[in-house]
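Re: weekly structure request thread

Next one in the queue (197 aa):
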Amino acid sequence: MPRLFTALEIPRNAAMSLSLLRGGLPGARWIDVENYHITLRFIGDVDNRTADEVVDRLDRIDRPEFQIKLDGIGAFGSKKPHSVWAGVTQTPEMFALQAEIERICQRIGLSPDPRKFTPHVTLARLKSSRVEDVVQYLAGRGNFQTSLFTVPRFVLLSSRDSVGGGPYLTEEVFPLREALSAPSVDNSFLQPVKSLA
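Done, posted below.
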Protein backbone atom coordinates (compact mmCIF):
# COMPACT_ATOMS: atom_id res chain seq x y z
CA MET A 1 0.00 0.00 0.00
CA PRO A 2 1.36 3.46 -0.84
CA ARG A 3 2.03 6.09 1.78
CA LEU A 4 -0.95 8.38 2.20
CA PHE A 5 -1.27 11.97 3.36
CA THR A 6 -3.79 14.79 3.13
CA ALA A 7 -2.72 18.05 1.54
CA LEU A 8 -3.67 21.36 -0.03
CA GLU A 9 -2.74 21.90 -3.66
CA ILE A 10 -0.79 24.90 -4.93
CA PRO A 11 -2.32 26.80 -7.89
CA ARG A 12 -0.28 27.21 -11.04
CA ASN A 13 0.66 30.90 -10.57
CA ALA A 14 1.90 30.34 -7.02
CA ALA A 15 3.80 27.20 -8.10
CA MET A 16 5.48 29.14 -10.89
CA SER A 17 6.53 31.80 -8.37
CA LEU A 18 7.95 29.06 -6.15
CA SER A 19 9.85 27.56 -9.07
CA LEU A 20 11.82 30.82 -9.41
CA LEU A 21 13.37 30.04 -6.01
CA ARG A 22 15.05 26.90 -7.37
CA GLY A 23 18.83 26.92 -7.69
CA GLY A 24 21.68 28.73 -6.01
CA LEU A 25 22.10 26.32 -3.09
CA PRO A 26 24.78 23.61 -3.31
CA GLY A 27 23.63 20.19 -2.05
CA ALA A 28 19.91 20.87 -2.60
CA ARG A 29 17.61 18.35 -4.29
CA TRP A 30 14.80 20.53 -5.62
CA ILE A 31 11.20 19.30 -5.51
CA ASP A 32 9.51 19.14 -8.92
CA VAL A 33 7.00 21.96 -9.44
CA GLU A 34 4.07 19.56 -9.97
CA ASN A 35 4.74 18.03 -6.53
CA TYR A 36 4.41 21.25 -4.50
CA HIS A 37 1.76 20.94 -1.79
CA ILE A 38 0.97 21.83 1.83
CA THR A 39 0.77 18.67 3.96
CA LEU A 40 -2.15 18.68 6.38
CA ARG A 41 -1.71 15.23 7.94
CA PHE A 42 0.73 12.41 7.19
CA ILE A 43 -1.19 9.13 7.41
CA GLY A 44 1.51 6.70 6.32
CA ASP A 45 1.36 3.11 5.14
CA VAL A 46 -2.07 1.70 6.01
CA ASP A 47 -4.03 -1.34 4.88
CA ASN A 48 -6.88 -1.06 2.37
CA ARG A 49 -9.60 -1.25 5.04
CA THR A 50 -8.07 1.64 6.99
CA ALA A 51 -7.55 3.64 3.79
CA ASP A 52 -11.23 3.16 2.87
CA GLU A 53 -12.29 4.26 6.35
CA VAL A 54 -10.09 7.37 6.13
CA VAL A 55 -11.64 8.27 2.78
CA ASP A 56 -15.18 7.68 4.07
CA ARG A 57 -14.62 9.94 7.10
CA LEU A 58 -12.80 12.67 5.16
CA ASP A 59 -15.65 12.72 2.66
CA ARG A 60 -17.98 13.85 5.46
CA ILE A 61 -15.99 16.99 6.30
CA ASP A 62 -18.14 20.08 5.74
CA ARG A 63 -15.97 23.18 5.96
CA PRO A 64 -15.86 26.41 3.93
CA GLU A 65 -13.18 27.21 1.39
CA PHE A 66 -10.64 29.79 2.53
CA GLN A 67 -7.84 31.99 1.27
CA ILE A 68 -4.12 31.77 1.95
CA LYS A 69 -0.90 33.01 0.43
CA LEU A 70 2.68 31.80 0.51
CA ASP A 71 4.84 34.13 2.55
CA GLY A 72 8.56 33.97 3.34
CA ILE A 73 11.03 31.11 3.19
CA GLY A 74 13.08 29.25 5.76
CA ALA A 75 14.85 25.99 6.56
CA PHE A 76 14.25 23.11 8.95
CA GLY A 77 17.26 21.94 10.96
CA SER A 78 19.21 24.86 12.39
CA LYS A 79 22.54 23.10 13.05
CA LYS A 80 22.23 20.67 10.14
CA PRO A 81 19.66 22.00 7.66
CA HIS A 82 17.68 19.22 5.97
CA SER A 83 15.05 21.11 3.94
CA VAL A 84 14.12 24.53 2.57
CA TRP A 85 10.48 25.63 2.63
CA ALA A 86 8.09 28.45 1.74
CA GLY A 87 5.81 29.64 4.53
CA VAL A 88 2.02 29.82 4.46
CA THR A 89 -0.17 32.50 6.03
CA GLN A 90 -1.82 31.02 9.07
CA THR A 91 -5.59 31.19 8.78
CA PRO A 92 -8.05 29.85 11.39
CA GLU A 93 -9.94 27.92 8.67
CA MET A 94 -6.83 26.01 7.60
CA PHE A 95 -5.97 25.11 11.20
CA ALA A 96 -9.57 24.03 11.87
CA LEU A 97 -9.52 21.77 8.80
CA GLN A 98 -6.19 20.25 9.84
CA ALA A 99 -7.44 19.69 13.41
CA GLU A 100 -10.57 17.92 12.15
CA ILE A 101 -8.48 15.64 9.93
CA GLU A 102 -6.22 14.88 12.91
CA ARG A 103 -9.26 13.99 15.07
CA ILE A 104 -10.60 11.71 12.33
CA CYS A 105 -7.28 9.89 12.03
CA GLN A 106 -7.06 9.35 15.78
CA ARG A 107 -10.69 8.15 16.00
CA ILE A 108 -10.02 5.37 13.52
CA GLY A 109 -7.00 4.23 15.50
CA LEU A 110 -4.02 6.01 13.95
CA SER A 111 -1.37 7.35 16.32
CA PRO A 112 -1.43 11.11 16.95
CA ASP A 113 0.88 13.09 14.69
CA PRO A 114 3.87 13.86 16.93
CA ARG A 115 4.79 17.00 15.01
CA LYS A 116 3.14 20.36 15.54
CA PHE A 117 1.30 21.46 12.39
CA THR A 118 3.55 23.99 10.63
CA PRO A 119 2.03 24.77 7.22
CA HIS A 120 4.69 25.04 4.53
CA VAL A 121 5.65 23.99 1.00
CA THR A 122 8.88 21.99 0.84
CA LEU A 123 11.09 23.41 -1.91
CA ALA A 124 14.21 21.27 -1.53
CA ARG A 125 15.72 18.48 0.52
CA LEU A 126 19.28 19.13 1.66
CA LYS A 127 21.94 16.45 1.91
CA SER A 128 25.28 18.12 2.28
CA SER A 129 24.46 21.83 2.29
CA ARG A 130 26.58 23.97 4.59
CA VAL A 131 24.81 26.17 7.13
CA GLU A 132 26.56 29.24 5.66
CA ASP A 133 25.24 28.45 2.17
CA VAL A 134 21.70 27.97 3.48
CA VAL A 135 21.85 31.27 5.41
CA GLN A 136 23.09 33.08 2.31
CA TYR A 137 20.40 31.49 0.13
CA LEU A 138 17.62 32.46 2.56
CA ALA A 139 18.95 35.99 3.05
CA GLY A 140 18.63 36.71 -0.67
CA ARG A 141 15.03 35.50 -0.91
CA GLY A 142 13.44 36.42 2.42
CA ASN A 143 10.82 38.76 0.96
CA PHE A 144 9.15 36.02 -1.10
CA GLN A 145 5.35 36.32 -1.25
CA THR A 146 2.50 35.27 -3.55
CA SER A 147 -0.94 36.73 -4.09
CA LEU A 148 -3.86 35.38 -2.08
CA PHE A 149 -5.49 32.30 -3.54
CA THR A 150 -8.62 30.37 -2.66
CA VAL A 151 -8.38 26.79 -1.37
CA PRO A 152 -11.49 25.10 -2.82
CA ARG A 153 -10.61 21.54 -1.76
CA PHE A 154 -8.13 19.27 -0.06
CA VAL A 155 -6.78 16.01 -1.43
CA LEU A 156 -5.53 12.60 -0.39
CA LEU A 157 -2.15 12.00 -1.99
CA SER A 158 -0.02 8.89 -2.19
CA SER A 159 3.68 8.37 -2.66
CA ARG A 160 5.47 5.18 -3.55
CA ASP A 161 8.89 6.80 -3.22
CA SER A 162 10.44 6.21 0.20
CA VAL A 163 12.89 9.12 -0.21
CA GLY A 164 10.18 11.81 -0.23
CA GLY A 165 9.60 14.60 -2.69
CA GLY A 166 7.33 12.77 -5.11
CA PRO A 167 6.05 11.66 -7.46
CA TYR A 168 2.67 12.04 -5.76
CA LEU A 169 -0.65 10.73 -7.04
CA THR A 170 -4.03 12.27 -6.24
CA GLU A 171 -6.08 9.41 -4.81
CA GLU A 172 -9.18 11.35 -3.70
CA VAL A 173 -10.49 14.94 -3.83
CA PHE A 174 -12.60 16.49 -1.06
CA PRO A 175 -14.35 19.76 -2.03
CA LEU A 176 -14.82 22.48 0.55
CA ARG A 177 -18.05 24.44 0.78
CA GLU A 178 -18.11 27.48 -1.53
CA ALA A 179 -17.82 30.79 0.29
CA LEU A 180 -20.73 33.16 -0.28
CA SER A 181 -18.78 36.19 -1.47
CA ALA A 182 -15.17 35.37 -2.22
CA PRO A 183 -13.16 37.75 -4.41
CA SER A 184 -11.92 36.45 -7.73
CA VAL A 185 -8.56 34.74 -7.32
CA ASP A 186 -6.44 32.19 -9.18
CA ASN A 187 -7.73 28.64 -8.87
CA SER A 188 -5.84 26.95 -11.73
CA PHE A 189 -4.20 23.93 -10.18
CA LEU A 190 -1.27 22.01 -11.57
CA GLN A 191 -2.40 18.49 -10.89
CA PRO A 192 -5.28 17.05 -12.86
CA VAL A 193 -7.64 14.95 -10.76
CA LYS A 194 -6.83 11.27 -11.19
CA SER A 195 -8.85 9.29 -8.68
CA LEU A 196 -7.39 5.81 -8.29
CA ALA A 197 -9.73 4.55 -5.61
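The two ends are 12 Å apart (CA to CA). Confidence is low (pLDDT under 50) at residues 190-197.
Next request, please.
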